[in-house]
Specification:
- This protein is mostly helical and 488 residues long.
- It has 20 helices and two strands.
- The chain has a two-stranded antiparallel ribbon with strand order 1-2.
- The protein is globular and about 55 Å long.
């Protein structure tokens, strides 16, 4: 993929501002060309300020900036609100009950994974590339909604079956079904649809308001270990409301299409590769607390889960950059390869810099964070958090250099092989280390898996694409969506 020289590589925000204002500046030049010639002398002293005002005005009106801000609001709620409730819940529930809640929460995340089925990547890509075709968008929506209904039914049945064999689930039925409720509600959230349209502000506002109410409810209702199940139940209500309102808005924008067997099949077929990717990712990501709970006491799960949540909350501060760039990169990848490469490099600069700063902060302040958030009873979590301090820089490289570049260019198969291998690696190491070293062994397993993913993604980008080499020639291939995309 041939790429253009990056403007001001050490100042990405300037490039974005200039890019946002470019259309407006061009229009002003055409409409006012004659008067500017006549008033050249007086304008000479005002040119620089006017240029900067145009850039600032264009940046304020830029949809990419609006979507990034909306996603930052959502991510702050998803990452910061748990940090607000964690100190309270850790003290009220204690390490063992908190560990049980974390175990069931991990099951809920597996349900979210099953219901999303990769639609938040594949369907977002489809909507982004067909956003001006109401018929296509309606069919995509119908296929995804029908597929998610089937997947939700299967997930509920699987959770019931698992509870017959796993003691922590069998002995806590209220907690189990509260976790299932959360998983289903979060899984059907149609944020992916509005992300593809790059129209996120309303749905983001609904989620922020709903989660705020949920946090208030936790402080008012959860008063003892017996109320632990209510903490999960309250987490499921905001995404349920967002799903109901979001669906209503979606079907006002595009025609309602009844899900058919063919549409559901097409949705599943177009997403199954990314579902495999997400499934492999969960083996060293979302499912770690669940895996640990199969071998270790609930208290060890609690130590691990606290440190994992803090590290994920820290890295979550960078997620809006990734989520805002992904649909834009998907659209540019189908047309302007040079522009896609330039935008991807800007995103990589921002995310990797932020990842290193977050990692340093986590390592230095780990004892203070654990003591402040959870109290002295969770002191063993300090070691886990310091191990996880290496994750933000690793994840920043993996996401910005690998996922943000390989997936929009149809390299799903390459990504799947890397993620599945890492998931299997993490699973094998967890089975070997967790029974003996418990929360520390699980943390080391996760770190090794993430190192493997990071190195593999960077290697794939260097070999297959011109992300770094601006003069590398391009070839075109057909992506799983049937569009011509770029591939090295």
């Amino acid at each position: 993929m041939n790429t253009m020289p990056v403007k001001s590589p050490h100042n990405p925000s300037t490039v974005l501002a200039a890019e946002a204002a470019e259309g407006e500046a061009q229009q002003d030049n055409v409409s006012a060309g004659g008067s500017r010639v006549e008033e050249a002398g007086s304008d000479a002293t005002k040119g620089a300020p006017n240029t900067w005002m145009a850039r600032i005005g264009g940046l304020v009106r830029n949809d990419l900036v609006h979507n990034t801000a909306a996603l930052y609001g959502v991510q702050l709620c998803r990452k910061i609100f748990p940090l607000i409730t964690m100190p309270y819940l850790a003290r009220v529930l204690g390490p063992s009950v908190w560990g049980t809640v974390a175990f069931v929460s991990s099951l809920g995340e597996f349900i979210v994974l099953m219901i999303e089925f990769g639609f938040n990547l594949s369907a977002t890509r489809q909507i982004a590339q067909a956003r001006h075709s109401p018929a296509v968008c309606g069919n995509v929506m119908a296929g995804v909604v029908g597929a998610q209904a089937l997947l939700a039914t299967g997930s509920i049945a699987a959770a019931w079956l698992a509870s017959r064999f796993i003691p922590l689930l069998r002995d806590n039925p209220q907690l189990l079904w509260a976790g299932v409720f959360y998983g289903v509600c979060q899984g059907i959230n149609p944020l992916w649809f509005f992300q593809g349209l790059e129209r996120l502000r309303l749905l983001a506002t609904l989620e922020i308001v709903g989660k705020t109410i949920g946090v208030i409810g936790i402080f008012l209702i959860v008063r003892s270990p017996e109320n632990a199940w209510l903490a999960l139940l309250l987490q499921g209500i905001p995404p349920l409301l967002s799903a109901i309102i979001g669906m209503g808005i979606a079907y006002r924008l595009f025609p309602f299409v009844v899900p058919t067997v063919s549409l559901v099949r097409d949705a599943l077929v177009s997403s199954w590769r990314l579902f495999v990717f997400r499934s492999g990712e969960s083996l060293y990501g979302a499912g770690n607390a669940f895996i640990l709970g199969l071998f270790a006491p609930a208290a060890s799960v609690g130590y691990f889960a606290i440190a994992e949540k803090i590290s994920k909350a820290a890295f979550g501060l960078l997620n809006p950059v990734r989520e805002a760039l992904y649909p834009r990169l998907s659209r540019l990848a189908a047309g302007s390869g040079a522009e896609a490469a330039r935008l991807a490099r800007i995103g990589a600069t921002l995310m990797i810099s932020g990842g290193f700063l977050l990692g340093i902060g986590l390592y230095v302040f780990a004892p203070l964070l654990i003591r402040t958030i959870t109290g002295a009873s969770f002191a063993p979590a300090v070691t886990v958090l310091r191990i996880f301090a290496l994750l933000p820089p690793l994840l920043a490289v993996t996401t910005s250099v690998g996922l943000q570049w390989l997936l929009p260019h149809g390299q799903d198969g390459v990504v799947n092989r890397i993620i599945l291998t890492a998931g299997a690696l993490n699973l094998v190491m967890a089975f070997a280390a967790a029974p003996r070293f418990q929360h520390v062994g699980m943390a080391v397993s996760v770190l090794i898996a993430e190192c493997f993913v990071c190195a593999s993604m960077v290697h794939a980008v260097m070999v297959r694409t011109p992300f770094w080499n601006r003069h590398k020639p391009l070839e075109t291939v057909t992506s799983p969506l049937g569009k011509e995309v770029l591939n090295g």
